[in-house]
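Long-time lurker. I teach an intro course on protein structure, and each term I like to show students one example going from raw sequence to a predicted 3D structure in token notation. This year I'd like something fresh instead of my usual example. Would anyone be willing to generate the tokens for the chain below so I can use it in lecture? Attribution to the forum is fine with me.
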Amino acid sequence: MRTGKWFGIMEYLTLEKKEHIATISMHRAPVNAVNHQFYREVIEMFDGIGADRDIRVAILRSDFEKYWCAGNDVNDFVGMTPENGHIRHRSVYNAYTSIYECAAPTIAAIDGCALGTGMALASVCDVIITSDRAVIGAPEINFGVMGAGKLLRRLVPEKVMREMLFSGRHVKATELERWGCLRTVPAEKLMDEVTAEAKLIASKCPPTMRLLKESLNCVESMDFKLGLFTELSYTRKASVFEDSMEAKKAFLEKREPVFKGY
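-- Reply from a regular --
Happy to contribute to a lecture. Here you go:
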């Protein structure tokens, strides 16, 4: 178990914070199968990260080599009925949206299987980097339940999404890379590549980066004209930040910016 200043006792998640980068490790043996408590910890963890303005980027990884997250704990489904299912439904929804809405950009660092809930957790991260041996899938139909098509659609085209959901088959990350939804690297270089990406993101203007993520989430479902107007409005908001002015001055003066943060 691990505790921290803004989150309580965690059974399945641990946090390491270094140089403005938060690394969250999942460790529910043996395969990171997600139960109700796991979902609750995800909510608390990412809500806390979003509230901590010293964190500029978050990495979500697994402590297990072969399993990033193998999906839901099927035991959780056994006692679920139409009458009590809403309780679990609310936790699942809040867990996914806590990552999607986290104020800091998020990176999924995937080695091994990301299935069902694992696929869903990855899909709501901003950046996905996987090993070349990783596999992703939505096998829920094999257990008589339904997969998250809306989330899988964030990774693959509509017809691919439907085929994956109907068949329940797993797909190699190297195959999914063609759709531009993720980047694969050799397994032994995964965390080096992820750390380099996190450091690059963390080096950018902190308040503008958070505003950028908010803007991207806001315009995602808008039509072109409304989305364009909204993004321009966010650009205007960013101009008030002292760090934003520092970024411009540093560029003109051909030097590295020195950000104060919040």
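Some talking points for your students: The chain has a mean pLDDT of 92. Residues 13-202 form a domain with the 2-enoyl-CoA Hydratase; Chain A, domain 1 fold (CATH 3.90.226.10).
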